[in-house]
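Predict both folds.
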Amino acid sequence: MIDTVRWITDSGKVISKYNKDLNILPGKLRLIDQVCLPKKLTYIETTDLEEIFQCIKRLSVRGAPAIGCAAALGLAAVVQSHQVNSVKDLLTEIERVSNRLAESRPTAVNLFWALNRCVNQAKSIKSCDVNDIKEELIKEALNIVEEDIAMCAAIGENGSELLKDGDTVLTHCNAGALATADFGTALSPIYKAVENGLNIKVYSDETRPLLQGSRLTAWELQRAGVDVTTICDSMAGQVMKEGKIDIVIVGSDRVAANGDAANKIGTYSLAILAKYHNIPFYVAIPYSTIDMELSDGSMIPIELRDRKEIIKGFGKWTGPEDVKTYNPAFDVTPNELITGIITEQGILTPPFTEKIKKIFD
């Protein structure tokens, strides 16, 4: 598929899976610069903390699972070259780098999940050799990447059961391979259904203001040979009214314990439209996107982004320079609007609270 987030060794080998026989250090974080898509496919390779921070902040890498993978690999890339005299000093440095990366985006819970997992793993190593901990850090990051690939493949298997030959899927933003380590969440069932020989069509909302649906989802689906049509966000209701949509599948950046789901701004409106038109609305996520510490969606922090994304998103002023703007990056879809949640462990149906809890039992 698409190697969105990977580790590249100094010898030039691009890897996504830990191999004890492979020299994984030194190396770099390697990721697709999604800001350049669809015009140009280009990669960023770096070990610099502030560059990695900015890659996440400016959406060179985006999508909750991909952000988590990039943060984990980025943490290992930054720390590997730090010269410290003791394990204690190294662990302090690991926490410092992790805390900085955690400041990049507030809504995507995978960011914090991946960083905490790596930091805790580093702390658990019973060794006095700082190099052992550095190697364990990249090993754990690669485990996160490998796990994400496997979970997305399983989401595809489970979600493809919802699709039949001739179906048309509506999706919002990008929850494909570009948003994960591979395959995607919302797009994975589509890829699997097509792989199984089904004729599946997709309508992709352009997703204002940064057009992830038209720039990224359409590019990704075309690249995979999937029939895709891009529409403006405001056209979704009319397309549903015309009977062109059989099912809506979206991703999510954070799901609360009760099933409320935060996703790219505009998803809530789409869910309301789907409910009115009696179209099933599904959210596709790995378990790492569920935040069991939040009882409902009202507790999910919503990132507010720069005003210029609305009025000068692609270099041309589309509004008065001094006009006031409000630019939340996400909204929260209440669980009562969600038909089901597609996970690597199966498809959850309402009521969600107890079924979500069982995932963690």
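Second protein follows, with its predicted structure tokens after the sequence.
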Amino acid sequence: MDNTISKISEKIKKGGEVSPFLFMGKNIDLLNEKVENIAKTLLREFEIPNVYLYIFKDDWEKIKVKEIKNFIEFSNSKSPFTFQIFLIENISRLTPTSSNSLLKFFEEPGIWNIIFTTNVWENNILETILSRVQTIDLNIWSIKKDNSFYLSLIKNYLSNESNEIISYFFKNKLEKQDYIEFLENLIIYSKNNLTFINYLEDINEDINGIKQNNLNAKYVVDKWILKIK
């Protein structure tokens, strides 16, 4: 996650508006704790008091319009510091009406407002909200299932024993999930062999981009095949 923090930090330093984030993870309690730590790390870097981290805590109740409007009320006033952070835990608790009331805030948060949200998956989140967030799937970091075929392709390619990986992705007509699985195994290979570790966050972001249909899966895989060489 360090790479995510550094990218947000760079954007802030350049004075740019930071798009809202949706962090996903299987364990919602652990996820909320991780994302809160990310927020506090950013505040600490810019010497901003933690009181400028506003958290809508997850109490498993549906979030009503009045509640969410009260929560984001401070977003209308510019912080005396560089930015302030709004964290909405378990965003799927929003009712459709509550979600609609947030659309303008998500679309134009202002350069002094950073929005973090969490959820187990994308289900039950209004599509118009999903279209306005950058998704970071933390599930990818705990992948345990590997694919020996993909791992073998990667190993042989990096050791200069075979370029079968190139012909495989060039000749075969594959589904989006096949490309995603390859990229997930690229992460597994990297972690197991401690190679191109600095690329892990970027690979993960590309996986999320493919899942949201924003990125061409074949193009992404071709890019990483060239890059890891």
